[in-house]
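Dissemination and training. As part of the outreach component of the grant, students in the summer workshop were shown how a complex can be specified as a set of sequence lines and then modelled as a single object. The example used during the hands-on session is reproduced here so that future cohorts can follow it. Participants entered these lines:
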Amino acid sequence: DIVMTQSPDSLAVSLGERATISCKSSQSVLHSPNNKNYLAWYQHKPGQPPKVLIYWASTRESGVPDRFSGSGSGTDFTLTITSLQAEDVAVYYCQQYYSVPCSFGQGTKLEIK
Amino acid sequence: QVHLVESGGGVVQPGRSLRLSCAASGFTFSTYGMHWVRQAPGKGLEWVAVITSDGSSQYYANSVEGRFTISRDNSENTLYLQMSSLRAEDTAVYYCARAASFRLELPWNWGQGTLVTVSS
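and obtained this result:
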């Protein structure tokens, strides 16, 4: 089974500043035949269901602001939020969809400093 | 517009059973895989199970294998999760989610969730 590990567990960033969240998988989620990384990022706000932000490690879902970006390959991935806005306060999760059982990281709680 | 509504949650004693339902609308239910994902109080998301569009294959998390059964009725546009031998650690909000069109293993559209509390 693939284990996903995020860091940090929590993060406080000033409005307008950059937030960076790391996600590591216990084995590669890169599928060589199509050169795609089977890695997604979700945003989860209290009282709401999780929302897909990024898939294929770096493809933004429609409607997601371009201040959100994903990068990385293989086993190491990063979610970056440039110019943090108040509405970005949430818990962020990475998830591998390379194989079952699907697995999420433990989550990173993002707050305003 | 994709709409998923979970129901069936509540308080149940340890060792008992409970069945959750997820009513789907706004899309062709029979052409999408479907997931259950849960979140225990104060904890992160935990994937529970997935079923293929035609119901022919199911996959489970190790933590629920042998106790939970995911199923679907494509004629009723409804997803189910039959939970048995419930434990305190199964207490969580249970979300159903439609899989991405391009990958079964990626939960894409989520419902609002239903709370299951396992307590004596």
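The CA atoms of residues 43 and 92 of chain A lie 5 Å apart. Students were then asked to discuss how this feature might be tested experimentally.
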